Each structure stands twice: as structure tokens, then as C-alpha cells.
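Hey,
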Amino acid sequence: MTAAAGRPPARERRALGVFLTSLHWIYGPSWAELAGRTGLSVSTLQRTARRSGPVPREENVIAYVEGITDDPRAVTDAMRLWRRARIEERGRLRTLGAPAPAYVRNEADLLAALAAAYEKDGAPPLRTLQRRAGRAGTEVFVLPLANASRIVNRVRLPTDQRQYEAFLTGCNIPEHALGPWREAWHRARSAQPATTRAAPHPVA
């Protein structure tokens, strides 16, 4: 359903726009100056700071904030709001019924939990996810794009634990939080095979 079809105003998108606009008011660079600092066009910057419309790209939000202030807390706050706006815009997280890692019982549960981790991170482009997941050596990515697509669409689990943890790293889950995820992996892999199905909205 679109806004034109009667969808309620996007509250989280508005919150992101209010925050970004407030930064601009407080620190005050002109649009032209900000464009020079960020390498983005004035029109792109203005779209990024809008209170409605599509959620801007993650990298544009980061560039916008870093072009205005060098306070790292501002980037942290912007990313928190951006993720909320992306979750709201996509509307998929609430449909997954995903358990927390500690409650994963089988492969179907784990597929849902992985898809939820991806959604909670704002569903980044798969190439961004792949880059964050890291490389095996200098040439080969640990997480092939085809595998990433199957994981986020709940078609197939990662091929092994290394790829599994690389996927989680790509979703910005820090090393210190991986303990319950590792336990979930071993529980799911030792459980009886479960029938899985593709998500209704594939990710390109």
C-alpha cells in the first residue's frame, strides 16, 4: 500500500528528517558548502533531509551528518533513526515471527532469525552486506551474493559457520554478541531437518 492509497504518515521517516534538519539548523553550513564537503549534490542533500518520501541511502545520511559535524554521536543517532525508518518503510520485520537467537530450535527458526537480523540493520544492499562480511584472502568474498540472497529470503542457511558469522558481521552484529548466535547455529544444525520456504518478497 502506498501513501497515496491511504497509508498513515511514515512516523520514523519524519523523525529522521527532523533530526537531520535540526543538525543543519544548529551548525548552519549552506547547502552549497555542504555539497562541497560531501561530494553530494544539493538536491540529494535536500532529499536526504526531507521529512517524507523514500528513506535515503545509508551512505548519504552518513555523509550528510559528517559534513555538518564531527561529533560521532550524531552519526550514531542518525543511524539509529535511519534503521527505524527503513524497518518502517519495508514493513517486513513484523511479518517474520523470528525468535531471538536463544530461542532458535531448528533451521526454519534460524532462517527467520537471520532474515530479522538483516531487516533490523536496515536491509542494506547485498553488495554492502557482502563487503562488510569480509574477504577470504585478497580476492574472494566470504559471502557470495547468491548465498546472501538465499539467506535473506529464507531459502537456505549459510554453507558453514564461517559464512554464517560473516553474514552476522555484515548485519553489524558485533563479535561480543555472537555467543547466542553460535549456540543457535549448533542447535539448528543438530535438529531434525525442517522444511523451509522462500520469503514472499525476494530481495534483489
